[in-house]
Design goal:
- By secondary structure, the protein is of the alpha/beta class.
- The chain has two domains: 159 residues, SPOUT methyltransferase, trefoil knot domain (Alpha/beta knot), CATH 3.40.1280; 72 residues, Helicase, Ruva Protein, domain 3 (Orthogonal Bundle), CATH 1.10.8.
- It has ten helices and six strands.
- A six-stranded parallel sheet has the order 3-2-1-5-4-6.
- Helix 1 links the parallel strand 1 and strand 2.
- The radius of gyration is 20 Å and the shape is elongated.
Length: 251
């Protein structure tokens, strides 16, 4: 049987510093059957410097990659996203290893695209960038050296996904109603929930983003479908209409 590919999974490289590393990432993607690479605001991107590291086997991945200016824009089409980090502690909790994350990723690709997000080689992803994503992954290493080369990190995570995909083949008989909302729709939903909760005085205007953190994580765990998104949006509109009506009657 033909090995399962990872075409529903995309590798997003956020502000990569070296074109050579992008070339190595492309080869890792080709090894694991992942065909989509997205660069976010790359530093001095140079295809010619990346090609030797990709070899001719992955040249097509470099020539077809997408470049976008922001992480939010890169994530818009995807229903699920996994940020990678080598830094632990603080609020960075509920972190998955690649082996723990891979079965989830393989299952989630049945309901929408999945993005794996990797930060710059010198500093990784910030808390703000991680917060945009749905989940967090770290690759266990020796305490003597916790950081991995960018292509190594990509290969480790894709390898676990590749193994998981062989155990659970993807069937393409999917229906639109089964699709989990993507990041663009999530952002619309969060903005609507934020405005609604402020209008009924559930969260205060002095620091609404802080109170929205737990709500966002709750919604991410629910992974709402498109028809559920429509229901929640309609509920919010009705709540805001009643809130405005009540204020008018009390004035």
């Amino acid at each position: 049987m033909e090995p399962q590919r990872l075409d529903d999974i995309a590798v997003i490289l956020f502000r990569p510093k070296f074109s050579e590393n992008v070339g190595s990432v492309a080869r890792a993607c080709a090894n694991m059957g992942c065909s989509r690479i997205i660069l976010v605001d790359p530093w001095q991107w140079d295809l010619e410097r990346a090609l030797p590291l990709a070899t001719h086997h992955a040249r097509h991945l470099l020539e077809s990659l997408t470049i976008v200016p922001t992480l939010r824009e890169a994530l818009m089409p995807f229903s699920f996203s996994y940020a990678t980090t080598a830094r632990l502690g603080g609020w960075r909790k509920a972190i998955l290893t690649p082996r723990e994350a891979a079965p989830r990723i393989v299952e989630e690709r049945r309901h929408g695209g999945v993005a794996l997000v990797f930060g710059p080689e010198d500093r990784g992803l910030t808390n703000e960038e991680i917060e945009i994503c749905n989940a967090l992954v770290t690759i266990p290493t020796s305490t003597e050296l916790t950081s991995l080369n960018l292509a190594q990190a990509v290969l480790v995570l894709l390898y676990e996904c590749f193994l998981a995909a062989q155990e659970r083949p993807l069937h393409l008989s999917r229906y639109p109603k089964d699709r989990v909302i993507n990041h663009e729709e999530q952002e619309i939903l969060f903005a609507t929930l934020r405005a609604t909760l402020m209008e009924i005085d559930y969260i205060k205007p002095d620091n609404p983003d802080y109170f929205m953190l737990s709500i966002k994580r709750f919604v991410h765990r629910l992974a709402p479908r498109r028809h559920e998104f429509n229901q929640i949006m309609g509920l919010c509109r009705q709540i805001r209409r009643l809130a405005r009506l009540t204020r008018t009657q009390n004035d």
